[in-house]
Design goal:
- The chain is mostly helical and 180 residues long.
- The protein has five helices and two strands.
- It has a two-stranded antiparallel ribbon with strand order 1-2.
Length: 180
């Protein structure tokens, strides 16, 4: 990767808190889901995809050029491809893994916190009221794990995954441009 490409890592664009795909960061949720299905063995890696970002294009039009809804590239400028590049699929998979790592770490933090509070309750509560500690362990552990993993950290995990996607996309693009 050249020094220019390394310093020019694109930043994802957000409008009203929602990610907006662009030519610099052409992340496609449809492609993300398709790659997950392909990796699970539930779909074949064949279809009609944008020649620039590999986003699904759908059926081939009769006599008209088609424009990608993700990156804006025209099939006249860059012809459509029939398979998703393996390296690009790995970039999408790595994005999912990064998000999952953050979400799982946060959820486990909630469960560990609930366990610690339960131990504290067992030590401090008198007699039969320790039953409340066991109920808190079951219900509190579940709800704290859900809250920490899904509510508290989810947006951060998504943005971290998109930032990693943007970095790897730029490296993949520069590698594709450097190839003969």
């Amino acid at each position: 990767m050249s020094s220019r490409a390394a310093s020019a890592i694109p930043r994802p664009t957000y409008r009203d808190g929602d990610f907006v795909p662009s030519r610099d960061v052409p992340f496609s949720t449809d492609l993300d889901e398709l790659i997950a299905e392909i990796r699970a063995g539930n779909a074949p890696n064949i279809g009609r995809f944008c020649g620039y970002c590999c986003a699904p294009l759908g059926a081939e039009p009769e006599d008209a050029a088609q424009t990608c809804g993700v990156c804006g590239e025209s099939t006249e400028q860059t012809p459509a491809v029939d398979k998703i590049d393996r390296d690009l699929a790995q970039i999408y998979h790595a994005k999912r893994k990064r998000e999952g790592l953050y979400v799982h770490l946060a959820a486990w933090s909630g469960i560990i916190l609930a366990t610690g509070l339960t131990i504290l309750m067992i030590l401090l509560l008198p007699g039969w009221t320790k039953v409340f500690a066991i109920a808190f362990l079951v219900l509190g552990g579940y709800f704290m794990g859900v809250f920490f993993g899904n509510v508290l950290i989810q947006g951060f995990a998504y943005r971290a995954g998109l930032n990693m996607f943007a970095k790897r996309w730029a490296a993949w693009q520069s590698q594709a441009l450097d190839a003969p």
